[in-house]
Specification:
Blueprint (H helix, E strand, L loop, with lengths): L1 H15 L13 H8 L9 H6 L4 H8 L8 E3 L11 H14 L8 E3 L7 H14 L10 H9 L23 H5 L6 E3 L6 H8 L10 E4 L2 E3 L1 E3 L4 E6 L8 H24 L3 E6 L2 H10 L4 E4 L4
Parallel strand pairs: 7-8, 8-9
Antiparallel strand pairs: 1-2, 3-4, 4-5, 6-7
Helix pairs in contact: 1-5, 2-6, 4-5, 6-7
Protein name: DUF6310 domain-containing protein
InterPro entries: DUF6310 (IPR046277)
Pfam family, one: DUF6310
């Protein structure tokens, strides 16, 4: 049965769509595949699509079809190209065939409810935007591979990254380079071994360097939202449980650090945010830093 199913999927794909030749260029098929996939509901936050995005769209569909939220999807063969004699084969493959078409016919795919772009797909799209403003500075590797690898969640840091493992500046214009060449964010391993701290940092929404720190002008920041030009620092200690004397000393330390970090971020053309784990911690910092962006990390 499994062999038969595989054969029928192959027949359906070849019958439904002729894959256009890949156009040579900087983008390749990855960006258009991600944009198409962003309109669909996924059960795995789009991780399969991000992993396979460099392949032709029919291959992406075949490999990731089972990760779709199929309870919210209805497929209709409006053109008749996907109709097959076997009812079993039709039930198995019409959805794949409809989605794999180079152009999806109107009414062929019905989605129940609103679609929010899957997190992994949004991160990959942000990574494209992050790099393509400076194509001349991108390393000589396929752009699709660079964007996808940097946006995959929970990736493991490579040991001893070389000094050449850097990324072009985030959007902001030539003034970034005029200010300081070290303002270009670089992906570097996390400092220290605080697992909770690292998890909170990695889960910052749309963190371009999830799994890493962002090195900017010699400072390791906990997170970077490249498209928004926002650098982050996260605080995970339960400061409200400290004794009054220790709490005051720790708060003063965090205030001094925050002022220095925001000044450095702004000098390089970035905004700055602080993430905290508790509402009490947020209120304590807001009283001392009223003009800072302090965020309660509901994801942590």
């Amino acid at each position: 049965m499994h062999c038969y199913a595989g054969i029928m999927l192959g027949v359906l794909l070849s019958a439904c769509v002729t894959t256009p030749p890949t156009v040579a260029g900087a983008r390749g098929p990855g960006l258009s595949n991600l944009q198409r996939a962003a309109k669909l509901p996924w059960t795995d936050e789009g991780q399969c699509v991000v992993r396979e995005a460099a392949r032709p769209w029919p291959t992406v569909v075949e490999r990731c079809f089972q990760q779709l939220d199929q309870d919210r999807l209805r497929f209709r063969d409006t053109t008749g190209r996907c109709t097959v004699a076997s009812a079993d084969a039709a039930a198995l493959g019409i959805g794949v065939c409809v989605l794999a078409a180079s152009e999806i016919a109107v009414g062929a795919v019905l989605i129940i409810g609103a679609v929010v772009v899957a997190a992994a797909i949004q991160e990959a799209l942000d990574a494209y935007e992050f790099r393509q403003l400076y194509p001349e500075e991108t390393r000589a590797v396929p752009e699709t591979q660079v964007a996808i690898q940097s946006s995959l969640p929970k990736r493991k840091p490579q040991p001893q990254p070389s000094g050449q493992d850097w990324f072009p500046p985030v959007p902001g214009g030539p003034s970034d380079r005029e200010r300081n060449p070290n303002c270009s964010p670089r992906r570097v391993p996390h400092l220290g071994g605080n697992n909770l701290h690292n998890q909170c940092a990695d889960r910052i929404p749309r963190n371009t360097f999830s799994g890493w720190d962002a090195l900017v002008d010699g400072k390791n920041f906990d997170g970077l939202q490249g498209a928004a030009r926002m650098l982050w620092e996260v605080k995970t200690n339960d400061i409200e449980t400290y004794s009054p004397f220790v709490r005051q000393a720790e708060l003063q330390k965090q205030v001094d650090e925050a002022k220095r970090e925001r000044a450095l971020a702004e000098a390089c053309g970035f905004q700055f945010s602080i993430g905290v784990r508790t509402e009490a911690h947020k209120k304590l910092l807001e009283a001392l830093l009223p003009d800072f962006n302090i965020v309660l990390m509901t994801w942590c």
